[in-house]
Amino acid sequence: MVPAGTRTGFGDRARTLLRDVVMQATVEIVRTQGWARTRMGDIAAVAGISKPTLYKYFGSREELAREYVDREVDQVLQTARTVFERYPGDPERALTEGLQHIVEDLSRNPLIRAVFTDDAVAASLLPLVTTHGERLLKHAVDEIAAISSVALPGALPEDIRAYSDTLVRLMISHAILPSPSVEDSVDSMLRVALPLVRAARENGNAAAPTPGGVDAAGG
């Protein structure tokens, strides 16, 4: 007899796998034909499951839409996490490379293109953006703030929040109405972001204990 805990763990993994397969199918269909023309039956067919099974895991088309837009945003945020993990001791380099990758990703992202495009397929996503926009913005700011807090331990929480909010809005702005090149967009954002990064690093260095625990001012 299989232990109950083992059955539960397998069931959780199976549900996660099924949701991943459904999301992959949704992304494939939406990027091809737009959200307005996407039907639950189409998604079920591409995912290789029955329509009742799809509704069992996603109670409605709106619930599936919510997870779809979350997935699109999380893919962009994962880019930021990956770059900052690559350069844990060099936030300036991580920020520079991260912004370049993120702006490139955003310029191709269907949710961003839906806001400012003549492409009917992309434009059909605009209702999703307007419906979920505020929640997605908060989610993106929360994630960037979490990444920044680790990369900039000397920064005050309120500064991290303001910085993250500004940076996310700048990235979206440059993705929707880009500069002549990605490099120009990144350069403009770095002029805003780097002063805070450098100030935070200085604050962190000033707050760090001196070797042996002796205060430098007190000798």
UniProtKB/TrEMBL annotation:
Q: Kindly state which keywords UniProt assigns to this record, in alphabetical order.
A: DNA-binding, Transcription, Transcription regulation
Pfam families, from UniProt? TetR_C_35, TetR_N
Q: Does the keyword Transcription regulation apply?
A: yes
Top-level taxon of origin: Bacteria
Claim: Transcription regulation is one of the keywords in the record: yes
- What would be an example GO MF term here? DNA-binding transcription factor activity
Q: Can you say what this protein is called?
A: Uncharacterized protein
